[in-house]
Design brief:
Length: 320
């Protein structure tokens, strides 16, 4: 097989169907950019889960005098509504003995990594730092703040063990797991990732249809040349190669554009330009290593997908 002839046929085919080739390149580029973005989004969510789950604490809030007074005034209402925290506070604010017992039991649990105590004054200080600019902050006094134990677990998945062991006990208002709020955020991110995958599949189908149509038109426009090649003894594979290579070249160009979009997104959105890495320091963004690892997948699919689509289309449309 003469490589020069194949290359010349590829150039002729791309020039004859320039508009459709351009449409194929754009469709492949967009679909593969979404594909690469979905892979990066999935890795980012997994990375964020590991980062935030490690920082998530189980907070055990203790009853104070204000809680005890409210519980006494609304005992019947609390019992009817099932407000366990208020119900336990009816016996009064937490005592020093109860705090010591809770801390001791927490430290004896094998799944507990560390226990940190936060006093009412410390809680008030943290509250003012975060919400001091709001109107409600001016009406909050230190005695209304709750003391708490911040518990870090070795395995955040086992937070229910702590909840079941301490919820409802005397002196304890509520047991709050921060991971529940984090799970809601990750659920939204997963939905966004699914939406991106759905759009990617639609664009991929559009790209495949364009590739098949482009190959069909190219084969029809060169039916005379392929007929002559068949008459002089050329094999089916020899006749099909230029068409397959045309589709592969268009797909590869689209994949290169997709790689440029992914790299540009990392550079201009995450690291520089918009600079999300500096503006949102609470998120552990991925680095260049993660992006570079996805580029070979994008290039491989960009080369393979059009080639397979062209090969299957030629079996139907290249009848000489």
């Amino acid at each position: 097989m003469r490589a020069q002839f194949v290359m010349s046929e590829i150039g002729v085919g791309l020039r004859r169907n320039l508009t459709m080739t351009f449409a194929v390149i754009i469709s492949v580029a967009l679909s593969l950019a979404l594909f690469g973005g979905s892979l990066l989004m999935r890795e980012q969510v997994t990375r964020m889960k590991g980062y935030w789950y490690d920082k998530a604490n189980v907070s055990i809030y203790l009853c104070n005098k204000s809680d005890a007074e409210q519980a006494t005034e609304a005992a019947n209402k609390a019992a009817g509504s099932g407000d366990l925290g208020v119900a336990t506070c009816r016996k009064g604010a937490v005592t020093d003995e109860q705090k010591k017992q809770i801390e001791t039991e927490l430290k004896q649990m094998s799944l507990v990594k560390s226990v940190a105590y936060e006093s009412a004054d410390e809680a008030y200080k943290h509250y003012q730092e975060q919400y001091g600019h709001t109107a409600l902050a001016s009406s909050i006094t230190p005695d209304q703040m709750q003391e708490s134990f911040r518990v870090k677990l070795k395995d955040p998945e086992k937070y229910k063990v702590v909840t079941s062991a301490f919820a409802g006990r005397d002196g304890i208002h509520t047991v709050d797991d921060q991971r529940q709020a984090i799970d809601d955020l990750f659920r939204i991110l997963n939905y966004l990732n699914i939406a991106a995958l759905a759009i990617m599949l639609i664009m991929l189908i559009v790209a495949l249809l364009l590739i098949v149509n482009t190959v069909r038109v190219s084969a029809f426009s060169r039916r005379r040349e392929t007929g002559i090649m068949r008459l002089v003894g050329a094999s089916s594979f020899y006749i099909q190669v230029p068409f397959i290579m045309e589709a592969a070249v268009a797909g590869l160009i689209g994949a290169l554009f997709a790689c440029v979009m992914l790299v540009s997104g990392q550079y201009f959105v995450i690291d520089h330009g918009v600079g999300l890495r500096d503006k949102i320091q609470l998120i552990d963004f991925m680095g260049w290593t993660s992006v570079v690892r996805k580029l070979p997948y994008v290039l491989f699919i960009g080369l393979l997908m059009p080639s397979v689509a062209a090969f299957l289309a030629l079996r139907k449309y290249l009848k000489v």
